[in-house]
């Protein structure tokens, strides 16, 4: 079982440093946006070349 003794500090909501997670999420969104844009561009190019 989990130890809920007095040695552990109480968690205060909103006190955790989330700057690393925010940078990672921003990078993921940026990469996803670029990937989607490139995919759409390739599809448009393929449609124009094939016609």
UniProtKB/TrEMBL annotation:
Span of the signal peptide: none
Q: Where is the Cytochrome c oxidase subunit IV bacterial aa3 type domain?
A: 11-50
Transmembrane segment boundaries: 25-49
Tree of life domain: Bacteria
**Gene3D superfamilies, alphabetized:** Bacterial aa3 type cytochrome c oxidase subunit IV (1.20.5.160)
Q: Does the keyword NADP apply?
A: no
Alphabetized, the UniProt keywords read: Membrane, Transmembrane, Transmembrane helix
* Protein name (record): Aa3-type cytochrome c oxidase subunit IV
């Amino acid at each position: 079982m989990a130890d809920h003794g007095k040695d552990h500090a109480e968690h205060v909501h909103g006190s955790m440093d989330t700057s690393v997670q925010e940078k990672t999420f921003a990078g993921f969104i940026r990469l996803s946006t670029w990937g989607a844009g490139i995919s759409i561009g390739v599809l448009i190019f393929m449609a124009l070349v094939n016609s």
